[in-house]
Automatic annotation (TrEMBL):
Annotated InterPro entries: UreH-like_TM_dom
Keywords, sorted A to Z: Membrane, Transmembrane, Transmembrane helix
Pfam family, one: DsbD_2
Annotated protein name in UniProt: Sulfite exporter TauE/SafE family protein
Organism of provenance: Pseudomonas juntendi
C-alpha cells in the first residue's frame, strides 16, 4: 500500500494545475451563481460560494469512494494492472491537454453526458441560491458535471486499490481547484493570467505526464524508488 501523504500532495497539485480547465468548465457557473444571489444575500456571498464548493468537492470524494471500491475489489486480480495502465495513460493525456499539445482528453467527457442530462434540471431549480443548504446541494449536483480532468484523476485515485485512499485523493484534488474558483476581482485575473502563461501550462503538463509515467507499472518504478 503506497504512502498516503505523497499521494495527497500529488492530488492537490493535479487540482491546482488543472485550475485553468476548471475555470473554463465551472467559472461561468461561479459567475452565474454570484449574480443569482438575491440583493439581500450579497453580504453572504463568500459563505455561499464556499458552501457551493464544499458540495462540489463532496461529490468528488463520493465518486472517489465508489470507484475506489471497484478498484479495491480487483486489487488482487489482473484487472488491477489494466486499471493502473489506463490511469497512467489518462494522466499522460491530461498532461498533453494542460500543455496545450493535444485536447483528446475532452472527448471522454461524453461518457457522463447521459447522467448529466438528468441532473442539470435539478440543479437549475436551485437557482437563485438563497441559503447555505441550497448552495451546498447545488455544488453537490454540479460536481457530477462531465469533466475529463476529473475522470482522469478519478481513475488514478481508484487505481490505488483502496476505497478510503481514493476518496481522500479526490478530496485533495477538489481542494486544489479552490484557489482559481474562489478568487474574485483582480486576484482572479492574476491567477487566471498566471495559469494561462505558456511556460506555466507546459511545465504543469510535463509534470503531470511524468507523474503518469511514474504511475505506469514497470521496472522504472523500482529504479526511481531506489533514487
Amino acid at each position: 500500500m503506497p504512502d498516503l501523504l505523497p499521494l495527497l500532495g500529488s492530488a492537490l497539485v493535479l487540482g491546482l494545475l488543472g485550475g485553468g480547465h476548471c475555470l473554463g468548465m465551472c467559472g461561468g457557473l461561479m459567475g452565474a451563481l454570484t449574480l443569482a444571489i438575491p440583493p439581500e444575500q450579497r453580504g453572504r456571498r463568500l459563505r455561499l460560494l464556499l458552501a457551493y464548493n464544499l458540495g462540489r468537492i463532496f461529490s468528488y470524494a463520493c465518486a472517489g469512494l465508489l470507484l475506489g471500491l471497484a478498484g479495491w475489489a480487483v486489487a488482487s486480480s489482473p484487472a488491477a494492472l489494466a486499471l493502473r495502465v489506463l490511469a497512467a495513460l489518462l494522466l499522460i493525456a491530461m498532461g498533453l491537454y494542460l500543455a496545450g499539445w493535444w485536447s483528446g482528453l475532452t472527448r471522454i467527457e461524453v461518457l457522463g453526458r447521459g447522467v448529466w442530462r438528468h441532473i442539470q434540471p435539478l440543479a437549475s431549480r436551485l437557482l437563485p441560491v438563497s441559503s447555505l443548504p441550497r448552495a451546498l446541494l447545488l455544488g453537490a449536483l454540479w460536481g457530477w458535471l462531465p469533466c475529463g480532468l476529473v475522470y482522469s484523476t478519478l481513475l488514478w485515485a481508484a487505481s490505488q486499490g483502496h476505497a478510503g485512499y481514493s476518496a481522500a485523493l479526490m478530496l485533495a484534488f477538489g481542494v486544489g481547484t479552490w484557489p482559481v474558483l474562489l478568487a474574485t476581482g483582480l486576484a482572479a485575473e492574476r491567477v487566471n493570467t498566471l495559469l494561462k502563461r505558456r511556460s506555466v501550462r507546459v511545465a504543469g503538463g510535463v509534470l503531470v505526464m511524468l507523474f503518469g509515467i511514474w504511475t505506469m507499472p514497470g521496472p522504472h518504478q523500482h529504479w526511481l524508488m531506489g533514487h
